[in-house]
Amino acid sequence: MSNTRSSRSATGFVSAVSAFLIWGLSPIFYKALRPVPPFEILMHRMVWSFLFLVPLLLIVGRWNTFIATFRDRKTLRILFGTTLLVGSNWFLFIWAINNDHILQASLGYYTNPLVNVLLAMVFLGERLRRLQIVAVLVAFAGVVYMTLSVGEFPWVALALAFSFAFYGLLRKTAPVGAIEGLSIETLLLFAPAAGYLWYLNRQGLGAFASITWQTDLLLVACALVTAVPLLLFTVGARRLSLITIGFLQYLAPSCTFLLAVFVYGEPFSIAQAVTFCLIWLALAIFSTDAMVIWKARPKAGQGTRSLSRPAD
Questions:
Q1: Is the pTM of this model over 0.85?
Q2: Which end of the chain, N or C, is surrounded by fewer C-beta atoms within 10 Å?
């Protein structure tokens, strides 16, 4: 029994780490697609992801659940909203990568857990604990400092953080699994995305089959970059404690941060260093508070909550 649990934990850990590494290193993938406009990449991502997810639903036995969702109009309305939010988030992330704002993308996903807490307070009426309040204020101080010192409001980072936080907030109200939900979200944009790509190719403006065969393969591989880490994350989340997933989630923005500074050579000023240090301090406070609560709740017979949903 002990060996079985250990094996499940090891599988979960490897799966979760792999998911966060794929998300964190995804800028390398999108940089390779730099000749293609970000919006066109997004449309390919929608089309190929849906075509990849359809047979996957059959393989993992979720097809009936997927079909049943279409009978629930309320759930479909929610998923239409999440589709717009996740589409906006994906577009902004791709745009940021290919316009040399990788550091801001990293900052956005570091900030996301704190924004989740803030939205829970505003929209769900949850009370923030003292350390959570301190963490949010420290992060806010970092944003203000960067704005005043550099003279540039970190809008990319905040737009990524808030769009994904609102996506997570709305997505929690839809009673569907991760794979089924993503399948419906890509389906809702499949027709307009396919129509847009068909129009571009008819006009001779599309990237597909007009640049290189390597570019064509990368565009098709958008489906793998979208679905594979989600599947790995699902496996990991089922086998690991939520506090472990909460800590592992920082792997993704950390990888993105390292790529920005050491691989792509984005400028990293003292003001940016101070801002990141404040955000990291906020996350340390936030994570410490989460650890304390997680350790205390099992003793009281209570459940735990997920710290955050990672970026894609």
A1: yes
A2: N
Q: Is residue 190 part of a domain?
A: yes
Q: Is residue 306 part of a domain?
A: no
Q: What are the Cα distances from residue 1, in Å, to 5, 7, 13, 236?
A: 6, 10, 18, 19
Query: Does residue 227 fall inside a structural domain?
Result: yes
Q: What does residue 256 show for φ and ψ, rounded to 5 degrees?
A: -65, -40
* Structural domain range at position 33: 2-300
**Domain annotation covers residue 235:** yes
Percent of the chain with pLDDT over 70: 92
> Considering only CA atoms, which of 139, 89, 165 is closest in space to residue 276?
139
Calculate Rg over the CA atoms of the chain: 20
Burial of 25 (0-12, 13-18, 19+ CB in 10 A): middle
- Residue 47 CA to residue 175 CA, distance in Å, equals 24
> 160 and 109 in contact (C-beta within 8 Å)?
yes
The count of structural domains within the chain is 1
Residues in the chain: 312
The per-residue pLDDT for range 233-292, each reduced to its tens digit, is 988 888 877 778 878 889 999 999 999 999 999 988 898 899 999 999 999 998 888 888
From CA 254, how far away is CA 24, in angstroms rounded? Answer: 7
